[in-house]
Every structure is written in C-alpha cells, then in structure tokens.
Amino acid sequence: MNFELEEEQRMALDGWSRLVQRDIAPLAKDFKDQPFSRDAALEVMQIMAPYGVGSGWVPEEGGGVGLDFLTSGLLFEELAKVSPDVAGLAWVAEGAALKIFQNGSDAIKERYLPKLTTGEMIGCSAISEPGMGSSVREMRTLAVRDGKYFRISGEKMWTSNATVADVVTVVARTGENEFSMFLVDREEHGFKATDIGKLGLNGWPMCQVLFDDVVVPEENLLGGVGAGMREAMKGFARSRCFVSCLALGIAQAALQDAITYAKDRVQFGKPIAGHQLVQAMLAEMATDISASQLLVYRALSMLDSGKRCDVEASIAKSFTTEAAQRVTSKAIQVMGAFGLTKEFPAERHFRNARMLTIPDGTTQINQLIIGRHLTGIDAFS
Ligand SMILES: Cc1cc2nc3c(=O)[nH]c(=O)nc-3n(C[C@H](O)[C@H](O)[C@H](O)COP(=O)(O)OP(=O)(O)OC[C@H]3O[C@@H](n4cnc5c(N)ncnc54)[C@H](O)[C@@H]3O)c2cc1C
C-alpha cells in the first residue's frame, strides 16, 4: 500500500493547479450563480483539453490524453476547489467522449472524437427521465426502428451540460426489456434542451431534453442494439468516483475558507481559531476530508488496475458526498451569521455539496449496492 503520489502526478498537479488559478478561476467567477454560456463553456473546455481534463480518459489513439483515473481524479479534485461547476461540465463531457470512443463505429469516432477531445464540441449523457431516476429500467423514451433509421421520442431530465452540448448519448427503450444507446447530434438530428433552475452548482447546466420524433441513422447506435443498459451501468463505478472528486474539492474549499475566517475573527479577546470547540469543528472537517480521500483514491486505483470496484465506488460516493455536506455545514457554523450571507462563499459551498448525494446513484441506492454485497440479498427487487 503506497500513500505517496508519484513524481509525475505531483508535477501534473502543480502545473494544473497554477493553470486553474490563472486561467480558469477568472472565467468561472462569472458563472457561479448562472449557467455557462455556450461560448464560455467552449472556451474553458479548450483551455483544459491539453491537460487531459475533459479529454483525459480517451486514449491517445482516440485523440485524448489517456490519463490514468487516479491522476485524472486528482486534477478534478483540484479544479473543484475553485469551480465545481467547471469540473462538472468537464467530467460529463469526458464521460460522453469515452462512451463514443468505446462504442462508436470508426466513422462516428473519426467524425466526433477530434472535436470532443479538444473542447471544440461538448457532449452529455441522458438516462434519467421525469418519471424515472433510480429505477433506470422503467424508462419510457422509445427508439423505434424505421428501416436503416431509428425514431426517438421521449423526455429526459436532469441531463447535465445539455444546453451547451453538441451531442448527447441517449439511452432509449428499443424493445420490451431491451435498451440501446444512440448518439444524437443537436445540429443534424435535433434535440431541445431547457435549463432547470436548482439549489446549487448553478454554473453547470442541468436540463430537460426533448426528443420529438428525432430520426437517427443506425450507424449512430453506440454498442449495438440492446447494449444500452450494459454500457450505462458500466460507466457508473467511474462516475461515482468523479462525483466524489467534485465533493472533495468543495469540502476542501469550505475547510480552507473556515480556517482563514477563524484565524481572523476575534471573540472573547482572541481569534476564534484559538477556541477549543472551534478547533474541534475544523478537526472533524479535516478528518471527514481525509477519510473521503482514502476511499476515493482506493476506488480510482482499482479502476486503473481494471478490477471491478462497484462496491468500493459506492462506499466512496456515499461517504464522500454525505461528508461534504457535513463539512460545508460546519464551515457555516464556524463563520456564524456571516457564513449564511452571500458575502462569503460558505453558503454556496453548502448548496453545491447538497447537489451531490443525488446523481449517479443516490446515497440510498449506493447503500443498497453495499448491502447486497454484504448480505448476498438484493433489496432492489
Ligand atoms: C447534479 C446532478 C446531475 C445529474 N446529471 C445527470 C445526467 O447528466 N444525466 C442523467 O441522466 N441524469 C442526471 N442526473 C439525475 C440523477 O441521475 C437522478 O436524479 C438520480 O438517479 C435519482 O433519481 P431521482 O432524482 O428521480 O430520484 P428517485 O429515484 O425518485 O428517488 C427519490 C428518493 O427515493 C429514494 N429511493 C429510490 N429508490 C429506492 C430504493 N429502492 N430503496 C431506497 N430508497 C430509494 C432515493 O434514494 C431518493 O432519496 C443528475 C442529477 C443531479 C442532482
């Protein structure tokens, strides 16, 4: 067991950290509480692409950087300290590009990957619907074969990135118990995305997406007929790790802000950082963060070694996202009433952290995965 970063990881992280502060922080600051414009989203994706954020998981043969998941996770964690919204945008785009690399025909890959891996195009993935979230097999969106084409109709919900995206990988029902994944191009085939107002992560669009008899050629099937559910499920262990990296970044920013405030704020004749119970809150926050890091890095390392890590990813995701809520709530407590105001970032960290116990398996769904492993009993059915 080695708890040290490799020299290469440390160097990548140092260079990345400087870039985030210099180039991304100024851009992201205008989109803390309003969704990215498409131009801003493209600009930030293009800044990040050479560093492998937004393109890192696609191997070099597909035009990506071919980063390992642990290094990628460290970069996302660092980015999320400054802008979890940009981190969300890049993580979802990167996931869509990887799905296309793994499942697309040569023609599809040649057409889309060069632009998706350089940030000239943005992708997203649509699975959830208004009537279905956790129970993905209950989806209603239909894709009906029509000769060499499929006609897709239905409504997807909470699709991250969709208002700024060029392409969406959409999972739809193609039979009684058969699900397939399609690549839909906004310009060529048409899909309509509308931003949904929400509690936190307001720079990162979350959208309703309508498919109104959208006609796509069969070449746009990703992974063949019937492969949609398997491919969607395969991505969950990875995406649970990366939601956790976002939560880790938010929690660390909240701890840093709380420490800075506590050293400055004087009550009872000394900085509140010198009061033992304030130190206890800071210590609990740091402990939650350290425990989260160990769980997330373990799951990422397992992904890198090609081992199945469904349970480890669920443990990491459920713990880290719940921990980020505790940490950001304590940051507000350390800062007293000022922590509740818009003058300080603590309330935004809290709202942002609150968003993350829901996507890619709610805490409860991840607990059911862990419980099934422990008991051998499937509580889903
Ligand atoms: C920030 C964010 C980004 C997202 N991005 C995307 C995206 O890009 N693409 C996409 O397709 N979707 C996306 N989603 C949607 C997300 O995947 C769903 O919200 C999630 O799967 C939960 O579904 P739901 O919200 O419909 O809740 P529901 O499934 O209705 O669950 C409601 C409550 O019931 C509980 N529950 C449900 N079933 C069980 C059970 N069997 N046992 C115990 N408790 C249960 C849940 O834990 C939850 O507390 C995103 C969501 C968020 C918040």
Short synopsis of the structure:
With 381 residues, the chain is of the alpha+beta class. The protein has helices spanning 7-28, 38-48, 69-82, 84-103, 106-116, 228-264, 276-304, 310-335, 346-354, 363-375; strands at residues 123-126, 142-146, 149-160, 167-175, 178-185, 192-195, 206-217, 221-222, 266-267, 270-271. It has three domains: 7-116, Butyryl-Coa Dehydrogenase, subunit A, domain 1 (Orthogonal Bundle); 123-227, Butyryl-CoA Dehydrogenase, subunit A, domain 2; 230-375, Butyryl-CoA Dehydrogenase, subunit A, domain 3 (Up-down Bundle), CATH 1.20.140.10.
What keywords describe this structure?
single chain, about 375 residues, alpha+beta, Butyryl-Coa Dehydrogenase, subunit A, domain 1, Butyryl-CoA Dehydrogenase, subunit A, domain 2, Butyryl-CoA Dehydrogenase, subunit A, domain 3, 3 domains, 4-stranded mixed sheet, 4-stranded antiparallel sheet, 10 helices, 10 strands, binds flavin-adenine dinucleotide
What does it look like?
The protein has 381 residues and is of the alpha+beta class. The chain folds into three domains: 7-116, Butyryl-Coa Dehydrogenase, subunit A, domain 1; 123-227, Beta Barrel (Butyryl-CoA Dehydrogenase, subunit A, domain 2); 230-375, Up-down Bundle (Butyryl-CoA Dehydrogenase, subunit A, domain 3). It is built from ten helices and ten strands. It has helices spanning 7-28, 38-48, 69-82, 84-103, 106-116, 228-264, 276-304, 310-335, 346-354, 363-375, and strands spanning 123-126, 142-146, 149-160, 167-175, 178-185, 192-195, 206-217, 221-222, 266-267, 270-271. A four-stranded mixed β-sheet has the order 1-4-5-8, covered by helices on one side. A four-stranded antiparallel β-sheet has the order 2-3-7-6, with helices on one face. Strand 4 (167-175) and strand 5 (178-185) form a beta hairpin. Helix 6 (228-264) packs parallel to helix 8 (310-335) and helix 8 (310-335) crosses helix 10 (363-375). The longest helix has 37 residues, at 228-264. The two termini are 37 Å apart. Residues 92, 124-128, 133-134, 158-160, 201, 206, 355, 358-360, 362, 364-365, 368, 380 line the site of flavin-adenine dinucleotide. Belongs to the acyl-CoA dehydrogenase family. Residues 7-120 form the Acyl-CoA dehydrogenase/oxidase N-terminal domain. Its cofactor is FAD. Pfam families: Acyl-CoA_dh_1 (PF00441), Acyl-CoA_dh_M (PF02770), Acyl-CoA_dh_N (PF02771). Residues 124-214 form the Acyl-CoA oxidase/dehydrogenase middle domain.
